[in-house]
Specification:
Layout: E1 6-15, E2 19-29, E3 34-38, H1 45-52, E4 60-65, E5 68-69, H2 74-83, E6 84-87, H3 100-110, H4 115-129, H5 144-156, E7 162-166, H6 174-189, E8 193-198, H7 201-207, E9 210-215, E10 218-224, H8 225-228, H9 232-236, H10 244-254, H11 268-291
Parallel strand pairs: 3-8, 3-9, 6-7, 7-8
Antiparallel strand pairs: 1-2, 1-4, 4-5, 9-10
Helix pairs in contact: 3-4, 3-5, 4-5
Length: about 300
């Protein structure tokens, strides 16, 4: 069995003043999957992401790429970050160049690509994120949602195998979040492994293949999203409520409207489809009852 693409083993880390952030944390990231790191604010999710791309170095434990421990020398970190990109929650922490195109080109140029190859990477990333019309726009004149997409484009231009995102939908309105999630879904379809932090259980159920429940600087449980997020007792231990779709799905099972071996709905569209099936079955039953009645006419 091949090792996880990215793995953390026994990570420990404390900020100055002895404030513990990670405490013996174990996590595995499978190739081609979408992993949600789910936990309340202040649980250490951002600190973990900063360890997964080498921005922070653990006091104890280690990070492995395809089963091999990573190094923290200059060349080691450069090779690591070519494979593992990171997008911070606040895009202003990442954008620094005068224009959008210049900002996105920074990574490829640091890889040593020539101007032609860099322009190709930049064009591809802007097209993927739908921001081609912003190429010459000063970064300080972008909206919040535009800055998010530019920051992601900067990471995508590096063509990473793994893309780490810290609270990717935070601060976005519903249309902006939906647009961003559609972009991330397409990146996933193209083979990018996605890891994102969130405290939104509904988002995690909608988007993630796997979930790692995070609390007190360690992973309490990790597994398929539909299993982890359907366990109210487990979620309660990290101070989270079950997703609405999971609650409604379990109620449908209890009422006999959903077979016990059927998958719980993950998205509103899944629930609407279930309701349509129930309505269709009800209509057939009523039609059968009507057909079985003797109608007397005079």
């Amino acid at each position: 069995m091949s090792p996880p693409l990215l793995e953390a083993r026994g990570l420990g880390y404390a900020y100055p003043g002895g404030v513990a952030a990670l405490s013996g944390l174990d996590l595995s990231v499978a190739r081609g999957r979408r992993l949600a790191i789910l936990g309340p604010n202040g649980a250490g999710k951002t600190t973990l992401l900063l360890h997964l791309n080498g921005t922070l170095r653990p006091a104890t434990g280690r990070v492995l790429l395809e089963g091999k421990p990573v190094g923290y020398g200059r060349d080691d970190l450069a090779a690591w970050r070519r494979r593992v990109g990171l997008v911070l929650q606040d895009a202003d922490d990442q954008l620094f160049a005068a224009s959008v195109a210049e900002d996105i080109s920074f990574g490829p140029l640091n890889l040593g690509l020539d101007d032609a190859a860099t322009r190709q990477r930049v064009d591809q990333a802007m097209t993927a994120l739908g921001i081609g019309d912003l190429a010459d726009r000063p970064t300080h004149m972008l909206s919040f949602g535009q800055k998010k997409r530019v920051a992601i484009a900067g990471a995508v231009a590096m063509i990473p195998e793994i893309l780490l995102l810290d609270e990717p939908t935070a601060g976005l309105d519903h249309p902006g979040a939906a647009q961003l999630l559609a972009i991330l879904d397409e990146l996933s379809r193209q083979g990018t492994t996605l890891v994102f932090s969130t405290h939104d259980v509904d988002l995690a159920l909608d988007v993630a293949d796997d979930v790692a429940l995070f609390t007190g600087g360690r992973v309490l449980a990790q597994g398929p999203a539909t299993d982890i997020l359907a366990d109210p007792d487990l979620l309660d231990r990290v101070g989270l409520r079950p997703p609405l779709m999971a609650v409604l799905g379990r109620k449908a099972r209890a009422l006999g409207l959903l077979p016990v071996d059927a998958a719980l709905p993950r998205r509103p569209a899944d629930l609407l489809a279930l309701l349509e099936d129930i309505a269709a079955a009800h209509r057939l039953m009523k039609a059968g009852e009507a057909g079985g009645k003797l109608v007397v006419t005079t």
